[in-house]
């Protein structure tokens, strides 16, 4: 799949048995659009989501960034975080909506990881297909559509980025 890129060598012993998918815009970063983000990345990280990413990495989970942005725009983020994989937009295939769910499913199949053992973190209704692909969805913020799903499915929640970080 050419929307996936590996960003670090697999130096773990054995294969990962779980994955954690992190929507970038508005979830991992407080900025809803990377093109409009200015200043150092450190100010833009959403601390609870960044902590979750580091926690999953420490557990040996496959860490995957999922973004509407393209690979060039994501380069500073991938350099800082060194995820295992990146699912991002290409000119002919934007990474939005159902595309995020399809890409996540394809990556899990390729890696032989059961979706029931996986996590996804996202902030808006358009990310519902990504959240629906995993056994442990986490809603970030207060999108009303996602909150309804979270209440029905007993999904975890994390707070939205604070206004002064945006």
Automatic annotation (TrEMBL):
Its EC number is 3.1.3.-. Pfam families: HAD (PF12710). One of its GO terms (molecular function) is hydrolase activity. Keywords: Hydrolase. The keyword Chaperone does not apply. Gene3D superfamilies: HAD superfamily/HAD-like. This is Putative phosphatase.
């Amino acid at each position: 799949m050419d929307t996936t890129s590996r960003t670090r060598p697999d130096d773990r012993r054995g294969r990962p048995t779980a994955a954690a998918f992190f929507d970038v815009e508005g979830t991992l970063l407080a900025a809803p659009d990377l093109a409009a983000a200015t200043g150092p990345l450190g100010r833009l990280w959403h601390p609870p989501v960044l902590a979750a990413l580091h926690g999953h990495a420490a557990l040996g989970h496959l860490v995957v960034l999922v973004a509407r942005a393209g690979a060039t725009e994501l380069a500073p983020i991938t350099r800082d975080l060194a995820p295992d994989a990146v699912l991002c937009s290409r000119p002919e295939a934007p990474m939005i909506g159902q595309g995020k769910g399809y890409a996540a499913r394809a990556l899990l199949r390729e890696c032989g990881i059961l979706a029931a053992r996986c996590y996804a973190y996202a902030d808006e209704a358009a990310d519902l297909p990504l959240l629906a692909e995993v056994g442990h969805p986490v809603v970030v913020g207060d999108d009303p559509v996602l909150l309804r799903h979270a209440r029905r499915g007993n999904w975890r929640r994390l707070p939205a980025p604070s206004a002064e970080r945006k």
